[in-house]
Fold this sequence. Notes:
- By secondary structure, the chain is an alpha/beta fold.
- Helices cover 32% and strands 28% of the residues.
Amino acid sequence: MIELDGAYLExxxxxxxxxxxxxxxxxxxxxxxxxxxxxxKPGLKAQHLTSINTLKELCDxxxxxxxxxxxxxxxxxxxxxxxxxxxxxxxAGSISLLLQALMLPSLxxxxxxxxxxxxxxxxxxxxxxxxxxxxxxxxxxxxxxxIEMKILKRGYYPKxxxxxxxxxxxxxxxxxxxxxxxxxxxxxxKTPPVTLIEQGKLEQIRGVINVSLELQEKEVGDRIKRMMExxxxxxxxxxxxxxxxxxxxxxxxETVVWALFSKEGQMDYDNPIILGASALIEPGRSSEEIGxxxxxxxxxxxxxxxxxxxxxxxxxxxxxxxxxxxxIKVEEITNHTKTNIYVAEKFLPIGFKVEKNMISVxxxxxxx
Length: 368
């Protein structure tokens, strides 16, 4: 059984989520101790429990007893299934963070997987569902026939109530392979590596601002949009930012903005260069401040001349680990990214090489 120290580096919940995902596809059980030891309230949170309970449905997993605040448990996966799964986190717990555990196994199910998930669609210290939809999912096309997310309802802190529908049609069915190494071999022949090294030419900037209906009178969405456009117009490319006012249980919202690049006038379908930034709509902050924060973050990413910003880097690790020779140039290598590398190396027959701001994947024989 693979043993993991939940207090490693960043000591947060990502370690548990990535371990659940990789354990489920490799079929290797694990035990984790010191869960979220680096956090003010250690132990499992609602979204971790929901991940574990959903995986019990998705792959008949067995675990030791788990509840809110549990600081150690073991997990034993079985065969991944196809089908429709309905999940309710029950709070404003993050849908995106839950998907960190569920998405990877679903990519390789024996047929179509449909996940309907209720919870929070954006929040502090997390990528939102809009970020996943527009920035992360395009990189996963290499593994599937199709992957599509629909945002059905917005859910803000503290009441949640958001809802998404994620439909995945897998191209590779892991259960058709005698063992995980044969499955890995197939991926090497039939999928391109993740190669994100150079920005290329900035072609356009897109964005989405979602705001609860209560803030429409103050024109919060419109004011954020105007500020972002004024900060980003220096790039002299088309800017397309839409804003929407929505019915939600709590007052809130978010803006997500991303830049798209081309090589020789073409967007690379397998390895698109997409840099994203976001800012939460919170009490006590002006619309102009929020718009400026998101736009300035995006400017920093564009001006850094790297192909991957730090939040995308940590989310790509578990997918990069499946494809040798993957290589990304990152603006900053965070403890989040290093933690996910630690977990991926425990489960996969690979090693990550980290040099300055380059991260590459080698077979474990090369890396040790």
